[in-house]
Amino acid sequence: MAEKVLMKGNEAIAEAALRAGCRHYFGYPITPQTELAAYMAKRMPKIGGVFLQAESEISAINMVYGVSSTGKRVMTSSSSPGVSLKQEGISYIAGADLPALIVNVQRGGPGLGGIQPSQSDYFQATKGGGHGDYHLIVLTPASVQEMADLTALAFDLADKYRMPSMLLADGTLGQMMEPVELPEEEPHIIEKPWAVTGTEMKREHNIINSLYLVPEVLEKSNEERFERYKKIEEEEVRYEEYMMDDAEYCLVAFGIAARVAKNAVVALRQQGIKAGLIRPITVWPFPKKVINEAADKVKAFVSVELSMGQMIEDVKLAEECKKPVYLCSRSGGMIPDPEQIITLVKELEGGNN
Hints:
single chain, five-stranded mixed beta sheet
């Protein structure tokens, strides 16, 4: 039976990772995700796991690379500038076709920016971040419960498709406390015949590598990887629709911005304006199809973001110029409030009448 406890979002990620079978964590402290590392430091030694505070983010991600190659579930966490330092290692992990979980509890930027919440790492997460042709599976929680649930899912998807996954949260969710149900079920651990575990002279050596000196071989590797990505785009898109059945204005938002947008939808409905919400839960793969279908019914889209406007580009690509797309955002650690969204939609409604 599941137990319900009051936890911070950062702690919920850590506990969910442990329950998902993660026994190796490598990281480096940075606000606003440090509680995650602190939780791991306390719990890992008690369950026979490994916690190591590396000397840098670069060291931490390469330790993840090494442990993942042995087939073990492994993770790292950081916040925006720290994740930037990990990008080369993430590209290596993707190029070696290894599963791992990277958690980014975003803060404002660019540069050191500030320690307040942001969603301005969207491009970095969904468009690669590091060098080369690759993707990450990117999951975006909107509650502390989802911080836990999507952590377990991220491990499962990473293992299933042999690729890194990312939990893309923000500082508000990392610090927020809410009741969380923590399941007691066994983790979904799969066989990994490709892992470097020692042969006992019973099989050929496994080699984990991302270096291909023959161009034709590298091209074939990239093509095979993108076949997997195509399957993920067909089978692993996740989203929530809220009051979209008769909506004339579609808000698109993820994470903490989606909670604000949902309140705005309710208020707009009370004022006679038919608004609805599409909340991407995976931002890669992005829910293109549902947004494209919505474009046949609504008057306009509003992308609600904690950035200067990044996800809006994917919304525009998805709706294929059928309807106008507007941005409602704050940046630098500021969060849009429902009234800001309501005002914009009412202006659009006035212009459409």
